[in-house]
Amino acid sequence: MKPAKILFSTEGRIRRRTYWLYSIALTVAYLAIYFGVAVATGTLDTLASDTTSPILDVTEAILSIAMIWPSLCIQIKRWHDRDKSWVWIFINLIPIIGWIWSFVELGCLDGTKGQNKYGNSPKRANHEAVAATFD
Q: By C-alpha distance, which of 47, 71, 69 is closest to 59?
């Protein structure tokens, strides 16, 4: 699956590895842009103090809004891999228990073996792609 489809489409399934890689990549991109703006605008020192910087506040708001859809898409695809509907995304609204449940289901447990109602197994697709290179 192409990166654009992983980040901007809710269709299909992704493996745990893909989920973790894209989650980490989104976090690193967020932090890199945020701290890059802080360094470029000379407001890095405000991060360690009680004062706030309007530039960093706006940057944080824009980045947070921009990350919502890609984050939702990768989580929905993981729920699909677990053979569960997108509505399971709302479990994140339950403090602590919901976050732990989501972490375990999406980040730790294996997906449904074989095909489910959301598509073919991403593991099988990877194995077939590798096998096809040796034909």
A: 47
Confidence of residue 120 (pLDDT cuts 50, 70, 90): very high
pLDDT computed for residue 125 by the predictor: 59
Asked if 74 and 7 count as a contact pair (C-beta separation under 8 A), the reply is yes
Q: Give the whole-angstrom CA distance, residue 19 versus residue 6.
A: 9
- Report d(CA 22, CA 27) in Å as an integer: 9
Q: Which residues contact 130 (CB under 8 A, 6 or more apart)?
A: none
List the one residue out of 6, 35, 2 whose CA is nearest residue 22.
6
67: left (phi over 0), alpha (psi -120 to 50) or beta: alpha
Spatial distance between the Cα atoms of 20 and 59, rounded to a whole number of angstroms: 25
Tokens of residue 103, six digits: 């972490």
Residue 131 has pLDDT above 60, yes or no: no
* Sign of the Cα pseudo-torsion (61, 62, 65, 69, in order): negative
User: Is the predicted pLDDT of residue 48 greater than 90, yes or no?
Assistant: no
Give residue limits of the domains in the chain: 3-133
Q: How far apart are CA 27 and CA 17, in angstroms?
A: 15
* Total-model pTM: 0.84
